[in-house]
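Fold sample X.
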Amino acid sequence: MAMAASPQSTSYPGFSNYVRIDPSTWDAVKKQGQARVAGLKPFSEFFDRSRMSKPSSLNVFTTRLNFNLIYFQNNYLLIVTLCTLYLLFTNFWLLFTVFFLIGGFKFVSSMPANEPTVLPGGIMVTPKQLWPVLIVVGILLLWFTSVGGAIFWLVSVCALIVGTHAGFLEPPVEADFAEQQV
């Protein structure tokens, strides 16, 4: 029967000691995600075409926008998340760059300070030597993946979708009663 390999028995001794994911971090992320999903408004209410109308003035538009951004914030966050995932999965190099930067940051920040560490290939480095390398390589990768255009696209598309929906959807009747109660 084969025994499970311990973290120390990888081909690079000690490498798994530096790339750790804290379980409490994942628990907090899961709880926040579950709270956001629980707070989603029903899609029948979110896509209620009978409440869609052109606002009569800029004041009406901003009033609707302010109310709907708060009322449907979890639905709008879902739209932004889906647009971000679409952007990442249609641009492989940007996805690779994001994973590289997150992994590199986690690796370098978890290294013992001022102590040389042996990397694969027998190279001894300290965090002070790796930070500039990570920054330079990260900037080059971000430049080659044209992250500026990707961020501009993401902000533009999300602002257009969310702003149009929030400005054109009339608040529910219950909203008028909620504002009048003091």
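Fold sample Y, listed below.
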Amino acid sequence: MTSRVQCFTATPSTPITTTYGHNTRLHAEGINGVQLVSLEGLGDDHETVGENMGKSLAAWLDEEWLPQEIHVKMGISVKNTYVQCRTKGVDDVAEIMTQVTDDLFENWAEYNADAFVNAWDLGNYVADYLIAKSGSETCGCSTKIVD
């Protein structure tokens, strides 16, 4: 899959660079109006946060579609990726979101037959979950988080 890069400017001195596609990378400078989300409020128990996020994702999918075992498996993948990222010191929501998406995408054949969503839908839910649970401001288009 070929990636494409787009640059946006929130203010003249605040670049936000996004790369879409496989192995996506997002970058933002936290200066002049662009506020990065801090995950400090989630604490250091990454295993518990990942477990809760995976269960939330599965519950959300069950509510949106119908209860399926594949939703639990997707939740486990999301949890594992989150724990790996946080253990490596990654605390950027966009980087975690894209790693979750990349990991799911790499193994999508395992999920595809029973999934009504795609890897990006799940990555977006992860981003919405992390932003909401970190206490940061969300927007009206954010997915309702299932507890």
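Sample Y note: Residues 131 and 137 are 7 Å apart (CA to CA).
Also: Strands lie at 4-11, 14-20, 26-28.
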